[in-house]
Write a structure and sequence with these properties.
189 residues; disordered C terminus; binds xanthosine-5'-monophosphate
């Protein structure tokens, strides 16, 4: 797997520092509140697992599966499948967490749906932010790292379902980034 990597953008040590910084910001902001953290699957699971263990605040975790249909690395239509119970969202402070903010469509849709389900307030937190790729206006409340416009894998992020287990964030060699056929994917985008 490591020989598929062209370049490491964020090392394990840097990830540790970035997450600890954001965990501190979140603790200062939400210290006294009972939060519901809504994790967007699949990509955010590694980030969420590391993040919540650095948050000494009362919280619950709920999940929403965002399935997009894409060709290669370009995003397409989006479906959301919720596992959150009504009382986990309604009337509560919600923090939506995703692996990467790209076009902004996923987070915008999940935030809208949280409000539609009665959330008292909705904040957003991403591991990576790719501001150059934005298609809808969206600024995350919390972000660990800003990255350039390059397709990345590792630390939960996949290509064709693989590479999520890499402990760093990296760009693939072009020969491993070749686009596959257009198909609905269970693994999100
Ligand atoms: P949007 O466009 O809705 O996209 O902000 C967010 C989702 O798109 C996927 N995405 C990537 N996945 N490497 C990946 O493995 C990338 O560089 C990348 N850029 C976008 C990702 O699943 C994210 O949640």
């Amino acid at each position: 797997m490591h020989d598929h990597i062209a370049r490491v953008l964020i090392t394990e040590a840097e990830i540790e520092v970035g997450i600890s910084r954001v965990a501190g910001e979140l603790t200062d902001r939400f210290g006294g509140r009972d939060l519901t953290l809504v994790a967007i699957l699949k990509g955010s699971f590694v980030f969420v697992a590391d993040l919540i263990r650095r948050l000494p605040v009362p919280l619950r975790v709920a999940f929403v599966w965002a399935e997009s249909y894409r060709e290669g690395t370009a995003p397409g239509a989006l479906d959301l499948f919720w596992t959150a119970r009504e009382d986990e969202i309604a009337g509560r402070s919600v923090l939506v967490v995703d692996d990467i903010l790209d076009s902004g469509r996923t987070l915008a849709a999940v935030r809208r749906e949280c409000f539609a389900r009665g959330a008292a307030e909705v904040h957003t937190c991403v591991f990576l932010d790719k501001p150059e790729r934005r298609a809808v206006e969206f600024i995350p409340d919390f972000a660990c790292f800003e990255i350039e416009d390059v397709f990345v894998v590792g630390y939960g992020l996949d290509h064709a379902g693989r590479y999520r287990n890499l402990p760093y964030v990296a760009a693939l060699k072009p020969e491993f980034l070749a686009s596959s056929a257009v198909a609905p994917r269970g693994a999100r985008p």
